[in-house]
Protein backbone atom coordinates (compact mmCIF):
# COMPACT_ATOMS: atom_id res chain seq x y z
CA UNK A 1 0.00 0.00 0.00
CA UNK A 2 1.41 3.38 -0.94
CA UNK A 3 2.36 5.97 1.63
CA UNK A 4 -0.27 8.36 0.27
CA UNK A 5 -3.04 5.78 0.64
CA UNK A 6 -1.89 4.89 4.17
CA UNK A 7 -1.88 8.58 5.10
CA UNK A 8 -5.37 9.03 3.64
CA UNK A 9 -6.68 6.04 5.58
CA UNK A 10 -5.17 7.34 8.82
CA UNK A 11 -6.70 10.78 8.27
CA UNK A 12 -10.10 9.23 7.54
CA UNK A 13 -9.89 7.00 10.61
CA UNK A 14 -9.01 9.99 12.81
CA UNK A 15 -11.86 12.08 11.40
CA UNK A 16 -14.36 9.25 11.73
CA UNK A 17 -13.25 8.47 15.28
CA UNK A 18 -14.11 12.05 16.20
CA UNK A 19 -17.52 11.59 14.61
CA UNK A 20 -18.06 8.44 16.66
CA UNK A 21 -17.49 10.32 19.90
CA UNK A 22 -20.82 11.25 21.35
CA UNK A 23 -21.96 14.74 22.22
CA UNK A 24 -22.13 15.93 25.82
CA UNK A 25 -25.38 17.57 26.91
CA UNK A 26 -25.53 19.45 30.21
CA UNK A 27 -29.06 18.87 31.48
CA UNK A 28 -30.77 22.26 31.82
CA UNK A 29 -27.91 24.00 29.96
CA UNK A 30 -26.55 26.89 32.06
CA UNK A 31 -29.16 26.44 34.83
CA UNK A 32 -28.12 22.83 35.42
CA UNK A 33 -30.18 20.37 37.46
CA UNK A 34 -32.23 22.50 39.84
CA UNK A 35 -35.67 23.58 41.03
CA UNK A 36 -34.65 27.25 40.98
CA UNK A 37 -35.65 29.33 37.96
CA UNK A 38 -38.45 27.10 36.68
CA UNK A 39 -36.35 25.16 34.15
CA UNK A 40 -38.60 23.32 31.71
CA UNK A 41 -36.72 20.03 31.32
CA UNK A 42 -39.37 18.66 28.96
CA UNK A 43 -38.75 21.58 26.60
CA UNK A 44 -34.99 21.28 27.10
CA UNK A 45 -34.91 17.63 26.01
CA UNK A 46 -37.36 18.26 23.13
CA UNK A 47 -34.79 20.58 21.52
CA UNK A 48 -32.04 17.93 21.50
CA UNK A 49 -31.40 14.94 19.24
CA UNK A 50 -29.81 12.29 21.43
CA UNK A 51 -27.79 9.49 19.85
CA UNK A 52 -26.08 6.36 21.15
CA UNK A 53 -22.77 7.30 22.76
CA UNK A 54 -23.93 10.76 23.82
CA UNK A 55 -23.34 11.75 27.44
CA UNK A 56 -25.81 13.58 29.60
CA UNK A 57 -24.27 15.60 32.41
CA UNK A 58 -26.22 16.41 35.55
CA UNK A 59 -24.61 19.28 37.47
CA UNK A 60 -26.21 20.29 40.76
CA UNK A 61 -25.61 20.97 44.42
CA UNK A 62 -25.28 17.52 45.99
CA UNK A 63 -26.47 19.03 49.26
CA UNK A 64 -29.90 19.75 47.78
CA UNK A 65 -30.44 17.35 44.85
CA UNK A 66 -29.72 13.94 43.38
CA UNK A 67 -30.51 12.08 40.15
CA UNK A 68 -32.54 8.91 39.96
CA UNK A 69 -32.75 6.79 36.82
CA UNK A 70 -36.22 5.25 36.86
CA UNK A 71 -38.82 3.37 34.82
CA UNK A 72 -41.58 5.13 32.90
CA UNK A 73 -44.18 4.25 35.55
CA UNK A 74 -41.94 5.58 38.33
CA UNK A 75 -41.25 8.72 36.27
CA UNK A 76 -44.94 9.44 35.77
CA UNK A 77 -45.74 8.89 39.46
CA UNK A 78 -42.51 10.46 40.83
CA UNK A 79 -42.05 7.18 42.69
CA UNK A 80 -38.63 7.00 44.40
CA UNK A 81 -38.95 3.53 45.95
CA UNK A 82 -36.96 1.41 43.48
CA UNK A 83 -34.83 3.41 41.03
CA UNK A 84 -32.59 1.65 38.50
CA UNK A 85 -29.72 3.85 39.77
CA UNK A 86 -29.18 6.85 42.02
CA UNK A 87 -26.45 9.44 41.48
CA UNK A 88 -25.35 11.84 44.20
CA UNK A 89 -22.01 13.44 43.23
CA UNK A 90 -23.37 16.72 41.86
CA UNK A 91 -21.44 16.14 38.64
CA UNK A 92 -22.87 12.94 37.16
CA UNK A 93 -22.05 11.87 33.59
CA UNK A 94 -24.25 9.17 32.09
CA UNK A 95 -23.43 7.72 28.66
CA UNK A 96 -26.45 6.66 26.61
CA UNK A 97 -25.82 3.07 25.55
CA UNK A 98 -29.25 1.97 24.35
CA UNK A 99 -32.06 3.44 22.30
CA UNK A 100 -35.43 4.55 23.58
CA UNK A 101 -36.50 6.62 26.57
CA UNK A 102 -34.34 7.16 29.65
CA UNK A 103 -36.20 8.68 32.59
CA UNK A 104 -34.55 10.70 35.34
CA UNK A 105 -35.78 12.81 38.23
CA UNK A 106 -34.58 14.31 41.49
CA UNK A 107 -35.54 12.08 44.40
CA UNK A 108 -35.64 14.85 47.01
CA UNK A 109 -39.25 15.08 48.26
CA UNK A 110 -41.31 17.47 46.16
CA UNK A 111 -38.66 18.13 43.49
CA UNK A 112 -39.98 15.69 40.89
CA UNK A 113 -43.52 16.98 41.43
CA UNK A 114 -42.17 20.52 40.93
CA UNK A 115 -40.83 19.52 37.49
CA UNK A 116 -37.26 18.40 38.19
CA UNK A 117 -37.57 15.44 35.84
CA UNK A 118 -36.38 14.73 32.32
CA UNK A 119 -37.14 12.17 29.60
CA UNK A 120 -34.09 11.59 27.40
CA UNK A 121 -35.15 9.87 24.17
CA UNK A 122 -32.41 8.22 22.10
CA UNK A 123 -33.83 7.86 18.61
CA UNK A 124 -34.56 4.34 17.43
CA UNK A 125 -33.40 5.25 13.93
CA UNK A 126 -30.04 7.04 13.72
CA UNK A 127 -30.10 10.47 12.09
CA UNK A 128 -27.60 9.34 9.43
CA UNK A 129 -30.01 6.58 8.33
CA UNK A 130 -32.63 9.21 7.54
CA UNK A 131 -30.58 10.87 4.79
CA UNK A 132 -31.53 10.11 1.18
CA UNK A 133 -29.63 7.50 -0.77
CA UNK A 134 -26.77 8.76 -2.96
CA UNK A 135 -28.73 7.97 -6.12
CA UNK A 136 -31.47 10.38 -5.02
CA UNK A 137 -29.04 13.26 -4.55
CA UNK A 138 -28.00 15.05 -7.75
CA UNK A 139 -24.26 15.53 -8.17
CA UNK A 140 -23.53 18.91 -9.76
CA UNK A 141 -20.84 19.11 -12.39
CA UNK A 142 -20.87 15.44 -13.44
CA UNK A 143 -22.06 14.82 -16.94
CA UNK A 144 -21.72 11.58 -18.85
CA UNK A 145 -19.30 8.70 -18.35
CA UNK A 146 -15.67 9.18 -17.37
CA UNK A 147 -13.05 8.91 -20.13
CA UNK A 148 -12.06 5.41 -18.94
CA UNK A 149 -15.71 4.21 -19.09
CA UNK A 150 -15.95 3.88 -15.31
CA UNK A 151 -13.11 1.38 -14.96
CA UNK A 152 -10.48 1.95 -12.32
CA UNK A 153 -6.83 0.98 -12.77
CA UNK A 154 -6.05 -2.28 -10.95
CA UNK A 155 -3.75 -0.50 -8.44
CA UNK A 156 -6.56 1.80 -7.33
CA UNK A 157 -9.15 -0.96 -7.03
CA UNK A 158 -7.30 -2.60 -4.12
CA UNK A 159 -6.83 0.74 -2.37
CA UNK A 160 -10.49 1.65 -2.73
CA UNK A 161 -11.47 -1.80 -1.44
CA UNK A 162 -9.45 -1.09 1.71
CA UNK A 163 -11.18 2.28 2.07
CA UNK A 164 -14.52 0.50 1.66
CA UNK A 165 -13.67 -1.85 4.52
CA UNK A 166 -12.64 1.14 6.66
CA UNK A 167 -15.93 2.85 5.82
CA UNK A 168 -17.92 -0.24 6.89
CA UNK A 169 -16.00 -0.48 10.18
CA UNK A 170 -16.52 3.20 10.90
CA UNK A 171 -20.21 3.04 9.96
CA UNK A 172 -20.68 0.30 12.57
CA UNK A 173 -18.84 2.45 15.12
CA UNK A 174 -21.11 5.41 14.62
From TrEMBL:
InterPro entries: BlueCu_1_BS (IPR028871), Cupredoxin (IPR008972), Phytocyanin-like (IPR039391), Phytocyanin_dom (IPR003245). Residues 23-124 form the Phytocyanin domain. One of its GO terms (cellular component) is plasma membrane. Gene3D superfamilies: Cupredoxins - blue copper proteins (2.60.40.420). One of its GO terms (molecular function) is metal ion binding. The keyword Cell cycle does not apply. Residues 1-17 form the signal peptide. The keyword Metal-binding applies. Residues 129-150 are annotated as: Disordered. Keywords: Copper, Glycoprotein, Metal-binding, Signal. This is Phytocyanin domain-containing protein.
